Amino acid sequence: MSKQKIVEAVKSGRVLISDGAWGTFLQNKGMKAGECPELWAVDRPADVKEIAESYFAAGADMVESDTFGGTSFKLEHFELTERVAEINEAAARLSAEAAADADGDKWVIASVGPTGKMLVMGDVTEEELYDSFKEQVVALEKGGADAICIETMSALDEAGLAVKAAKENTACEVIVTFTFEQTVNGDYRTMMGVSPEQAAEEMIEAGADIIGTNCGNGIERMVDIVKAMRAEAPDIPILVHANAGLPKNIDGVDTFPETPEDMARQVGGLVDAGANIIGGCCGTTPAHIKAMKEAVTA
Ligand SMILES: [Zn+2]
Q: Are 289 and 20 spatial neighbours (Cβ–Cβ below 8 Å)?
């Protein structure tokens, strides 16, 4: 039997659990500053697969892949533009293998992060951005991704091109999430001035299957952001990857203060606000995911 789509599982009334942070996990496994995280999928596959396995073991219904910086524009910094397809395919395959090994229907939502190039600054053309995303998402699907998770977006034009590239060149479900900061007025905007309502409206228009928000905030503020998105978009599934609170700088290191129990306590509020898929971003671990899973199944 073929696997159900994530959107169908949400429509059936389930609240799904996603995974937590990958970057800090790689650092704990010995990745040094200045190393290319995505290259670990080729050079250290067992370590990368273990991250996906840890999140499935914690109860996640889906995991991402080690491909956040997998566009040609990001891999260029490591002189790896010739290896975009190889690296992304390998990384997606590691998550897909972990999904196949886990019990029940599990999904791979392969990560696609920003390119670091801004159309508004004239850094790049629309066609160049589209082609870069196309190259990455085609490789992710080949490696076994069920969905493409375009994340940490701040510009509508870049996010829209990524959604379009994924919709037009793969059969994957397409998720797109934006990172918001609270303004002095108490409302939320991305670095490029986009509101949650605008992000919701324009990404649905671009063809996204699932919208949402990741990073930048702990769960508490994510509740406000989800309410704003939900008011604009009553029907589409909403995904949240929340940080473990707002970082505190302790001895020069960003430390995320919320415990698994702190986050689990707020899951109910997030679901009430309209979130359908909940996971973690910076500072979250398998223990956070396990606690949140218990909160939704309780
Ligand atoms: Zn984050």
A: yes
